[in-house]
Design a protein that fits this description.
Distance between the termini: 70 Å
Strand content: 15-25%
Largest sheet: 3 strands, antiparallel
Oligomer: single chain
Low-confidence stretches: none
CATH topology: Arc Repressor Mutant, subunit A
Strand order of the largest sheet: 1-2-3
């Protein structure tokens, strides 16, 4: 199976008839099209089927940081944040996990088809993964300001 970078963006024909698409803001549509452009489509080999089938090879591993949205789409952080939130709530994308890096954590996304059931009883709310723990200061950490003061002063005396 070979991985191909798409030469264009394929849109599901059902998308044009969906209530979910027409309820999106323009900024959300721009972000969604950028997600579709980032996917890598892979052909599934079939022996007896005449129709060709494809799958998204990097689904669940798509990265789209704010810096990229700012450079390529000219979006401010709040607009980008609202677009991602709207796309998640209406079933176009899902947050699948987090990729810890030095000084930042990048979200990983998957393109979803939950939008097909939008505004019906069968629509499923998004499943959000838990944020990775182990970053930042925590109670009991010996590096905090208060803990340093407590360790520097003798017992029974208060620091003035």
């Amino acid at each position: 199976m070979s991985k191909k970078k798409p030469k264009g963006v394929y849109l599901d024909p059902d998308l044009f008839e969906s209530k979910a698409l027409y309820s999106l803001r323009a900024s959300s549509i721009k972000v969604y099209l950028r997600f579709l452009r980032k996917r890598i489509v892979q052909k599934i080999p079939r022996r007896q089927s005449r129709e060709e089938e494809y799958r998204i090879a990097n689904n669940g591993e798509i990265e789209f940081p704010y810096i990229e949205a700012q450079k390529k789409l000219g979006m401010v952080p709040r607009t980008y944040q609202l677009a991602i939130q709207e796309l998640t709530e209406k079933g176009f994308i899902d947050v699948t996990g987090y990729k810890p890096e030095i000084n930042k954590v990048t979200k990983l996304y998957a393109i979803s088809e939950r939008w097909k059931k939008y505004d019906t009883d069968e629509f499923e709310p998004p499943k959000c993964p838990t944020y990775p723990l182990g970053r930042g200061f925590r109670p009991g950490n010996q590096l905090g300001r208060r803990s340093q003061q407590e360790h520097d002063t003798p017992k029974g005396k208060k620091n003035e």
